[in-house]
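Task: complex structure prediction.
Instruction: return structure tokens for all chains below.
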Amino acid sequence: MITPKIIPQYRRLFEILRKHILEGIYKEGDLLPSEYELCQLYGMTRPTVRQSLSTLANEGYIRKHQGKGSIVHNLPREIGILSVAGTTSAVGNRNLKTTIIVKPVLVQWPSDFMFPLTELEKESGCIYMERVRFLDDIPIFYDITYIANINLPRITSRQFENRSLFQILRDHYNIEIKGGDQRIKAITATSKTGRLLHLRKEQPVLHLERKLETNNPGLFLYSSIFCNTEKYSIFGRF
Amino acid sequence: MITPKIIPQYRRLFEILRKHILEGIYKEGDLLPSEYELCQLYGMTRPTVRQSLSTLANEGYIRKHQGKGSIVHNLPREIGILSVAGTTSAVGNRNLKTTIIVKPVLVQWPSDFMFPLTELEKESGCIYMERVRFLDDIPIFYDITYIANINLPRITSRQFENRSLFQILRDHYNIEIKGGDQRIKAITATSKTGRLLHLRKEQPVLHLERKLETNNPGLFLYSSIFCNTEKYSIFGRF
DNA sequence: TTATTTAACTTGTATTTACAAGTAAAAATA
DNA sequence: TATTTTTACTTGTAAATACAAGTTAAATAA
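Output:
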């Protein structure tokens, strides 16, 4: 069923201004029209305009200065992943799309796996998948995911397109991510990585190897993530 | 000079709720009091309460659900190397050596500094230093440190060779690191970076930009760290 | 001319009011 | 009993209004 949802006014203005910034109509360092001008231009009241601007500021598109105005700050965007479970929650409610490179399949674990495995994990086999995640149509993450095939019926037939792996695990299997380990390196893009992330060969790529713990004590999620940090940075708080 | 600034109401409520969450009075998954209840409890109107809650939501402490309420989401903050204050504690008790590239000097802040600065910071000027840290005689970190020159007498004449900056700040100025933000990118080594880290030019380097909060509310530490991850990975837990 | 003050304009904070829309549990119905 | 409907309560969106506080440039005074 299609939902002809009414888009809130503040959201509409947010999208317009965001588009203008991304298209370069407002450039880095420019002052946006004042709140009062935006009210008149778009027929809204100031609280509504301010909600648009505060959303823009939260996502890093502008910086507000009291007495001065809103200044465009279209710097490389930041993506939070260092302390957050998945790439979906890392990017907030921005325009995130996913394409599947390798659908979930049951395979043997690689012989030289990046983390040591328990006997149970080795015996259970490995659910393997590859995805590329796009932010505003720019490929940002090339995720290779490995999960031990322990109590995950029918997972290989589920639809992962544009959905969060973690959400599927939570909704269908009651699996929550509790924490994890990770290693980070800067490496040079291989030809495959470069192709998937639209990078020239030999370009630097961020490589994360992660082991995530779940509320199921024996079950871990492993992932090898290659990040295109040319335009977006990865950020974290601690 | 101490500024007895008036703290806005919404900020006051934000701090109270944040503290309650961090102290565990509201636990992960709990529902916060409803907006109306908070209004009555703290004698504010709903827009004001909503501003507090939206700030909490933006910083990841709660999640709001229409029709349901605000649910506490006190994500485990990062710990470990990526979250640890300095590079000294990052490498444990291994053989860490430090050489000073640029001794601490008082300079102007760079015009396009990596983080926004307060007026006080801008006025105070910037203590600048560059160091390279070796692990087992391999250069691993090239640190550029920036500190606002606020209440740090004689810091430029102190001895930083083979000592932790954080230890000096703690021992001599009673400054403790409380937390911070960081951004991570994979970049290509510049000629200077490559030379200092013994890398061929064009090699990938991990670049961290960090803003560290201290127990002194107005004082932050900034650093730009270039990591040679050829042999060692950066690791972290969360 | 130079320095200071003023005025105009900007965003920040806050109240009041109203209705829309989502959620969950109680009440009514089959 | 099981299902559906209603109701109460929650957050979401939006307007109109007021004053505080920071910034900038024009007007004024030295």
